[in-house]
Amino acid sequence: METLALLTCLDVKGFLLFLVVFLVVMDYLKNKNPPNYPPGPFALPFLGNIFNRDSRQPHIYFTKLGNKTYNNIFALQTGRNKMVFITGYKMVKEALVNQAENFVDRPYSPLAMRIYSGNGGLFVSNGEMWKKHRRFALSTLRNFGLGRKTLEVAICEETTRLTKLAKLLFTLGEAFDPAALFNNAVSNIICQLVFGQRFDYADHNFQLMLKYLSEAVYLEGSVWAQLYEAFPAIMKHLPGSHNTLFSNYKAIYKFIGKNLAKHKEELDPSNPRDYMDCFLIEKENSHNPSEGFTEENLFRCTLDLFAAGTETTTTALRWGFIYLIKYPQIQDKVQAEIDKVIGSSRQPCMADRPNMPYTDAVIHEILRKGDIVPLNGPRVAKNDTTLGGYFIPKVSEPLKLRVHRKSLKYVEER
C-alpha cells in the first residue's frame, strides 16, 4: 500500500511538473519575438516584466532604459501584452512625423472598453470614425471660440473669478491647495464649449464631477489599472482601486447625462449653442450608425474633451507654481516683464505674447520640465515597419512614446 501511495504521489508530481514545463514552453513559443525585434529586459512566462519595473515612477524607469541601456527603443511585456517603447526626439519624430499615417491608430484596451462601454470617443477610436469625429470636434469647437478672441474673453472672465477667490483665501492666512481652484476655472472653459454654460464654484454636482475626474485620471496610472490591462478576465472579479476608477467614470457619465437631457429638451436645430447641440443635430441628420453620431458616443466624446482639457491644463498650472516658487529669480524676471509690457491696469491677452519672449520661454520650459503627459497614448502600426533598425509588426504591439525629459537646448535669456 505504501509503495502504491508513493507511486501515485510521484505520478501526480510528475504530471504537475510536466504540465508546468509544457505551459512554459507553449507560452514561450506563442510569445516568441520575431527576428530583429527590439531588445528588452528578461520577461517571466505569463507575468512578463511586472516585477522588474518601477510602478511608482514608470516614466523615469522607461527613460533610463531607453536613454542609457537600449538606445531609445526597447520592448517590455505585461502579462501576455507586449509593448515597444521609444524615447528621444529623433525616434519619436521618426514614428509620429516620418511614419505618421502608419502609427495613427490606437490599440485595443480592456480598460478603455470597460470605461467607454465599447469602442468610440476621440481617443480610442480608429479609422474613418476617428477622423470624422476629430474633424467634427475641431470645427465645432472653433465655431464656438476655440483659438479665437471670443474664447479669450471667456478665459479672462474666468481668470478674474479665480483671482478674486484666491485673494479671499489668502486673506484667511491659511495654506491651501490651488489645484481645486485651477480645476474649477479650467473645467468651466470646457463647459462653456461643450455645455454652453459655466458652473458656479459652489455647485455641488460640478465639484463632485471634478473630484471624480481627478481621482479617475490618477487611478488610470496605478498598478491596478495596469494589471487590469494585462489580466482583465481575472481582475474584473477582484477588489481593488480599478473598481473605484470604473465607478468614478459612471458618476461622471451621470453628470453628462443630466446636461444631455436638458439639451435634448431645449434643442433648437436652427440655433445650436455648443458642442452638445451640434452633436445632437448631426445625430438627427446622420442615418449611418457606423459614423458614431449616437448618444452613447456623445457621452464618450464629452468625457474625452473633459479629460484632455481639464487635467492636463490644471497639472501644467500646478507645475508652473512649483517651479516659480523653487526659482524666485526666474519669477522676478517674469514679473518684471509682465509689469513692463502689461502693467497693473489690465489683463494680459494673446496679443502681448510677441512682446514677452522671456515669459514665453519660461512657460515652454515649465511644460517640458513638468512633463505633463510623461507617456504619450499608445499607438499601433497599421503595417509591418522598422524603427531604429528594429522590426515592428503590424497591430500586435502597442508603441509608447516619451520625449520631454530628454535634454534639449534652452536659452534662458533672449
TrEMBL record:
Keyword Membrane: yes
Pfam families: p450
One GO CC term, this protein: cytoplasm
GO BP terms: organic acid metabolic process; xenobiotic metabolic process
Ranges annotated as spanning the membrane: 12-29
GO molecular function, a single term: oxidoreductase activity, acting on paired donors, with incorporation or reduction of molecular oxygen, reduced flavin or flavoprotein as one donor, and incorporation of one atom of oxygen
Keywords assigned: Iron, Membrane, Metal-binding, Transmembrane, Transmembrane helix
Cofactor needs: heme
Family: Belongs to the cytochrome P450 family.
PANTHER family: CYTOCHROME P450 2J2, CYTOCHROME P450 508A4-RELATED
Name of this protein: Cytochrome P450, family 2, subfamily N, polypeptide 13
Originating gene: LOC113591327
